[in-house]
């Protein structure tokens, strides 16, 4: 074959878009209930936005970005995530001046040059929600609740909410010092991929998937030992609110997010329904990002969730009814005058809101019946030459076999 899709990308086939639409509808419905409004930002931005917004030193920025030089000589990057773009837009459009609190959501493709595997692609889809303007830890809980509600509405109940507070930069700096004292003496025993984290960001060692690293970290000082009263109080409020909202969670003191701009609340939702890539969503508070990108200091919180993984989890729980609507009517006609009439009837039915199709392949009546059945049509409408003058046609219910002679007006009524 001459052309193939690029490794790590996927075609979403016509037979699969139904489940995507179903998921998107759930997302939009949940977002509306929580009063988050959709925002659509470009899929590419200046490279610097992501480098600054996601953080130099992160895997995303160091190794995974699709970056190219455009014809104007500018360095452009396909977005690896959407938060930086949302914040850029928030600042550029002064959204903070138009409303005291900005609650937005997005749905769209993201691009990361990671090693493809089940649940991990190079172009993948995320939905996410961001709330900019409030430092109230209760909105952190609301943001988590949004993520949870989407899963529940998808019929997914097997998941765990892992929760932590990553405190603030000064507290992390204190912790970092102590952590380095702990880690430096064992540096040579650490696997090489993790060893390089020591200088870049030792906190990320806790993020390691490697057993050996986790073993060596036993007894390492944890960030929570460095919380101040303020951080602890906010964290308590998040936990209390989650409990009040009926959302079970488990505190995971080793949970760190891969991104530098996170402060205080960090969370991840994982599911045993998935394989090695078990994270469905992740997010948290990023009080420093807006300022970092040139805006006024603005507290903010948000999450991003993987749509392919959400769909995998839905399949794993046996969800297969995506509410797809099959064809209402298949119009069957054979001779030329019948086909002409069929076009007109099809138009009238479509104008009346029905989903309708007809034959364009010159097939026999029998083959058209088969096609109607293959398409799961609820009704077929037979156009016979003799019926054309009287404008009454045979209309057959394919599930009951019942057949009646009806006018178009009558047809438009019973299946309304
Ligand atoms: P992140 O922006 O890395 O926190 O990712 C948020 C969510 O997006 C993850 O929990 C996954 O569900 C999903 N995700 C991240 N990277 C990928 C990828 N390469 N392929 C598919 N889904 C991904």
The beta-strand count equals 16
The CATH class of the largest domain, by name, is Alpha Beta
Give Rg in angstroms: 28 Å
Bound molecules: adenosine monophosphate
Account of the protein in words:
Helix 1 packs antiparallel against helix 6, helix 2 (47-54) crosses helix 4 and helix 6 (137-153) packs parallel to helix 11 (229-244). The chain has 2 domains: 17-167 and 227-316, BirA Bifunctional Protein, domain 2, CATH 3.30.930; 329-412, 3-Layer(aba) Sandwich (Rossmann fold). Strand 15 (393-397) and strand 16 form a beta hairpin. It has helices spanning 17-33, 47-54, 59-64, 83-92, 95-98, 137-153, 169-183, 192-195, 197-200, 211-216, 229-244, 289-292, 307-316, 336-351, 365-374, 408-412; strands at residues 37-38, 44-46, 66-69, 75-78, 102-111, 123-132, 160-165, 250-251, 263-270, 279-285, 300-306, 329-332, 356-358, 379-382, 393-397, 403-406. By secondary structure, it is an alpha+beta fold. Helices cover 37% and strands 20% of the residues. The longest helix is centred in the N-terminal third of the chain and has 17 residues, at 17-33. It is built from 16 helices and 16 strands. The structure holds adenosine monophosphate.
Which SSEs are present, and which pair or pack?
Blueprint: H1 17-33, E1 37-38, E2 44-46, H2 47-54, H3 59-64, E3 66-69, E4 75-78, H4 83-92, H5 95-98, E5 102-111, E6 123-132, H6 137-153, E7 160-165, H7 169-183, H8 192-195, H9 197-200, H10 211-216, H11 229-244, E8 250-251, E9 263-270, E10 279-285, H12 289-292, E11 300-306, H13 307-316, E12 329-332, H14 336-351, E13 356-358, H15 365-374, E14 379-382, E15 393-397, E16 403-406, H16 408-412
Parallel strand pairs: 1-5, 7-8, 12-13, 12-14
Antiparallel strand pairs: 2-4, 3-4, 5-6, 6-11, 7-9, 9-10, 10-11, 14-15, 15-16
Adenosine monophosphate binds at residues 81, 112, 114, 119-121, 124, 126, 258, 279-282, 304-306, 308-309.
